[in-house]
Automatic annotation (TrEMBL):
PANTHER family: GLYCEROPHOSPHODIESTER PHOSPHODIESTERASE, CYTOPLASMIC, GLYCEROPHOSPHORYL DIESTER PHOSPHODIESTERASE
Domain (GP-PDE) ranges: 19-246
Record's protein name: Glycerophosphodiester phosphodiesterase
SUPFAM superfamilies (alphabetical): PLC-like phosphodiesterases
Highest taxon above the source species: Bacteria
Species per Swiss-Prot/TrEMBL record: Kaistella montana
Record InterPro entries: GP_PDE_dom, PLC-like_Pdiesterase_TIM-brl
Signal peptide limits: none
Length: 246
């Protein structure tokens, strides 16, 4: 009877843990902001969300910049030098930010995590260079404890764990089970919510394995509550204020 009671109490705590909110590409659905802009990061900091997610790419001359799409204003980032990109503007008029500028803005509010998505590159060698440069800048600006990493590239995830074993790294693609991630030494998953709807047991399986669980891009109240009731640790959303108090 005592064992059963402890199990029930543990289960209650386990499944009612608070689901925390990550602002997808920052909190950009506000006046004078834009996805992956410095203003979207500052907005997320002001709202005190768990974290602000942003996308990192590398120019042809090895500069790290923050932008989701492969192209900006007709320029393919990986095939363009930073000297040509530095004047390109986001939709709110801000110039495309460098990774360094983002980290410097982020470290002003240490309580808000910087969720760094390293975008896949055209070769393993370029991906490995991207990882090395990103970790070097994270170390330079003293934000290692504030940064968590995500990627669609399994190679990037593995390289991050190889070079920085203490970093929190989550895989995005959705094609690996929790056990496979555990076996690879990856810290958890950040899967599209549709993947988790097709595999509803993966959240509890991951938690039993000690993995971090996250889902993107959750903009619907009903889907959010389904994931929250399943015990997911985090959701990444374009509407963070809408979900914050659900």
């Amino acid at each position: 009877m005592k064992t059963l009671l402890v199990t029930l109490i543990f289960s209650s705590v386990f499944y009612n843990a608070q689901t925390r909110i990550i602002a997808h590409r920052g909190y950009w659905k506000t006046e004078n902001s834009a996805q992956n802009s410095i203003s979207s990061l500052r907005n997320a900091q002001q709202q005190q969300f768990y974290g602000s997610e942003f996308d990192v790419r590398m120019t042809t001359d090895g500069k790290l910049v923050v932008n989701h799409d492969e192209h900006i204003n007709g320029f393919e980032i990986s095939e363009t030098s930073f000297s040509k990109l530095r004047t390109q503007k986001l939709k709110n008029g801000e110039k495309i930010p460098t990774f360094a500028k983002y980290l410097k803005a982020g470290r002003k509010v240490p309580a808000v995590k910087l969720i760094v998505e390293l975008k896949p590159a055209k070769s393993v060698e370029l991906e490995n260079t991207l990882v090395q440069k990103a970790l070097k800048e994270v170390e330079k600006y003293g934000v290692a404890a504030q940064c968590e990493f995500i990627s669609f590239s399994l190679n990037i995830c593995k390289e991050l764990k190889k070079l920085q074993p203490n970093a929190t790294v989550q895989y995005l693609k959705g094609d690996l089970t929790p056990q496979q991630l555990k076996d690879l030494g990856i810290d958890g998953f950040d899967y599209n919510f549709k993947i988790l709807q097709k595999n509803p047991a993966w959240i509890s399986e991951a938690k039993n394995l000690g993995l971090v669980t996250n889902s993107w891009t959750v903009n619907d109240d009903t889907i959010y509550l389904e994931l929250k009731n399943a015990g997911i640790d985090f959701v990444t959303t374009d509407v963070p204020t809408q979900l914050k108090n659900k």
